Amino acid sequence: MVADPHAALETLIGCGVGRVLTSGQRPRGIEGAPLLARLVQQAAGRITILGCGDLDEATIGQVRRQANLQELHFAAPTTIPSAMRYRNPALAMGGDDTSREYRHTVTDPARIRRMIAAARAQP
Q1: Pick from 29, 104, 39: nearest CA to 74
Q2: Of 35, 37, 40, 106, which sits most exposed with the smallest number of CB within 10 A?
Q3: Residue 77 belongs to what domain range?
Q4: Which residues, at least 6 apart from 77, have a Cβ–Cβ distance to it below 8 Å?
């Protein structure tokens, strides 16, 4: 969200920031990987570039390798049904999506393992 990501990186380094979370100014890390790579090179170990941006099993390894990232940020959510027994089909808290009342989003440990394996895999 900055006009000049290279100048912004130097500002963060100058402020003593230890790491910056970025997708390379793109919605997805795979699209921002070229900028991520340039930022990692510019940082030269003075700050950690923490790559992110809708990373999944299919893209995380490629983004890590292409940008030479040491750290990545990702989510591995899954939805589980609520334990609620009574369900009022006519009412939803905070909106019209009544099904939302009866599910929870949690982290999927198996997907975490798959993501880590994909990030570490060599081409």
Answers
A1: 29
A2: 106
A3: 5-120
A4: 105, 106, 107, 108
